[in-house]
Amino acid sequence: MKKILSAAAAVLGFTITLSSVTAYAAPEQEYTPLCYFVPDVTDEAEMLTNNIIHIPSSMLENGDYTLSTGVFIEDKEKRICYAASLKWSSDSEYIKLSELYDPTTALGEYQTYTTSEGREFRTNSIPFAYGSINDQSEMEIPYSVIPVVKDELDEMAFTYQNAVSSPLPLKTLGATSDEYPFAVFNAVISSDTPSGKYSIYFNTQDNTSGDRSRLTHIGYLRDEFDDIYPRTADLTIIVGDYLLGDTTLDGTVNAIDASSVLRAYANTATGAESGLDEFQTYISDTDHNGIVDAVDASTILGYYAFISTGGSGTLEDYISSK
């Protein structure tokens, strides 16, 4: 490992020694819920990770592609909340948000479902996280629900809440907070979407300007109402082809990508953020072991040297030939 790191560092102009890299323990933080998206992947689309979906350009040749998407809250502690309001946006005019489903609206014939706890219930809607099962074994929504679509901002919001004057806790339909979706909507990827990286993201203090009403938050009741801002995981949508090892996303795999990977490794080895986003991390992990490190940098550099001296093929071909 030291030889690989030293060789790559020497070529790329880094001075790093393993002896200087110390173990880093992240400080403990108070637990907060996580909000995330789950798309219903069909046809040739594929999930690269839990948060990254790849849509080949060929899927768009016959028209727009509609991605039915669920919004979920994972709260492992199942803390009692009295209101939950999630807001999310698209970062591109090519990815349109549409058809935010209202859980109180009938969609068709009644269907029978069974929770993980073995409780049967019927509904002619979609089973939703904050539904309840009545005496007739039917799902009902005992809370106020407020779906909002802002086309001019390409933004959506969905809220469950109880009367402030007599608050009752929101109870989940399933055994866990994310057994059923908090909300469901469609993301429509336009047929003329250029190849590239796009995102559907939750509105947070970090990425949304404006007042509190536009921020994702969950309300708890202690001595008085207390809003918290949950952790969030955005959905990355990759349209078109991509190259393993192309960390800089410029369409080629070269020494600059190896340099970026080595820099990211140096950052994480000392407890800092890598400097790579989730997709860059995915395509930089050349051996698919879940870690971006000096081995990946060395592999990318070796492939670049191979191509530069007349070799051909992709990085995957190069790796498989070893």
Topology:
Blueprint: H1 2-12, E1 34-39, E2 46-49, E3 52-55, E4 65-74, E5 83-90, E6 95-98, E7 111-114, E8 120-123, E9 132-133, E10 139-140, E11 144-150, E12 155-161, E13 183-189, E14 196-202, E15 217-221, E16 225-228, E17 231-233, E18 235-239, H2 255-269, H3 278-284, H4 294-308, H5 315-320
Parallel strand pairs: 1-17, 3-18
Antiparallel strand pairs: 1-4, 2-3, 4-13, 5-12, 5-14, 5-15, 6-13, 7-8, 9-10, 11-12, 14-18, 15-16
How would you characterize the overall build of this protein?
It is built from five helices and 18 strands. The protein has helices spanning 2-12, 255-269, 278-284, 294-308, 315-320; strands spanning 34-39, 46-49, 52-55, 65-74, 83-90, 95-98, 111-114, 120-123, 132-133, 139-140, 144-150, 155-161, 183-189, 196-202, 217-221, 225-228, 231-233, 235-239. A hairpin with a 3-residue loop joins strand 15 (217-221) and strand 16. The longest helix has 15 residues, at 255-269. Residues 1-28 have low confidence and may be disordered.
